[in-house]
């Protein structure tokens, strides 16, 4: 009643507007997350990715099977020294 007489309800209008802006922001955010969920769900259930996953598992199992057939090489200090001179892997390990 006092606002009607004085004609000053600007604070209520600002508060109401701020509440509406926040409500719209949260609603849009929720809609965005819902759409992203749908997109990720479609990607996750895609046959191509399931085949890739299966292929990687098969490769991993095959690598474990043939691991025992690899012969261990003896270390040769001269060859290691020459290799490290030509391919400075220590530099890459330190800086990358």
What keyword list fits this structure?
96 residues, mainly alpha, 80% helix, 0% strand, elongated
Question: What this model shows, in words?
Answer:
The chain starts with a helix and ends with a helix. The chain is elongated and about 100 Å long. The chain is mainly α. 80% of the residues lie in helices and 0% in strands.
Could you give the topology of this structure?
Blueprint: H1 2-6, H2 10-44, H3 47-66, H4 77-86, H5 89-95
Quaternary organization: single chain
Task: State the end-to-end CA separation.
Answer: 71 Å
Radius of gyration: 33 Å
Secondary-structure class? mainly alpha
Strand count, sense and barrel status of the largest sheet are: none
> How many helical stretches?
5
- Helix % is over 70%
Strand content: under 5%
Secondary-structure element order, N to C: HHHHH
Tell me how many strands there are: 0
| Low-pLDDT stretches | none
Shape, please?
elongated
Mean model confidence by pLDDT: 86
């Amino acid at each position: 009643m006092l606002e009607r007489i004085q004609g000053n309800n600007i604070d209520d209008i600002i508060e109401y507007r701020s509440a509406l802006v926040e409500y719209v922001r949260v609603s849009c955010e929720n809609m965005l997350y819902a759409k992203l969920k749908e997109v990720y769900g479609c990607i996750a259930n895609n046959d191509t990715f399931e085949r890739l996953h299966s292929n990687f598992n098969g490769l991993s199992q095959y690598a474990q099977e043939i691991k025992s057939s690899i012969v261990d090489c003896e270390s040769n200090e001269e060859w290691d020294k020459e290799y490290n001179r030509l391919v400075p892997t220590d530099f890459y390990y330190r800086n990358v």
